[in-house]
Design a protein that fits this description.
single chain, 180 residues, alpha+beta, two-stranded antiparallel ribbon, 3 helices
């Protein structure tokens, strides 16, 4: 056994026992841990286990798709309501510009709308579609302008980003309406 060097004979942190004796589980836990019951034993069990895992993964993927579609539908309704309110208030849309993926060049687009963030990375078009203003760029985009493709709108802009970078879509839309 490796000791920690203080003369007490205690094992150093992270040192493995040198006796070679198997480590016994504590009372109440299966010999192979809490997931031992779900592990397959024989060839038939392997196939059944694989089928169950495949079914569970498919179910999780379907549930995630359903939640994303529901979120996009809610966000789409917010965007359509925003476009209507912006037009009623006389807030004029502006021609949208997109940035290259590297962020070093800007490209004009054929789309008009309202920027939702001060850094001009996302916008809502006059058609009520949500746009991420990042494009591949290149010479043809420089000459003819970049083509924007609508994206599924999220309910939270910048979700998963650094602290202070996320804002709910409803709040972002309200800020645009306040700024006029």
């Amino acid at each position: 056994m490796t000791t920690d060097g203080d003369g007490t004979g205690r094992a150093a942190p992270g040192a493995a026992p040198s006796s070679g004796a198997p480590v016994r589980p504590t009372a109440g836990t299966p010999a192979d841990g809490p997931l031992a019951a779900s592990r397959p034993e024989g060839p038939d069990d392997v196939a059944a286990w694989r089928a169950r895992r495949t079914e569970a993964a498919a179910h999780q993927a379907a549930e995630l798709d359903r939640r994303r579609a529901q979120e996009s539908a809610e966000a789409g309704a917010l965007l359509r309501e925003f476009v209507e309110q912006a037009r009623q208030r006389g807030i004029a849309p502006v021609p949208l510009q997109a940035r290259s993926y590297g962020g070093d060049a800007t490209y004009r687009t054929r789309t008009s709308g309202w920027y939702l963030r001060k850094n001009r990375t996302v916008a809502v078009g006059t058609d009520g579609a949500f746009y991420v203003l990042s494009v591949p760029g290149g010479l043809s985009a420089r000459i003819r302008g970049a083509d924007l493709t609508p994206s599924d709108p999220p309910l939270v802009l910048g979700k998963g980003g650094r602290d202070g970078e996320s804002i709910s879509l409803a709040d972002a839309l309200a800020l645009v309406l306040e700024r006029g």
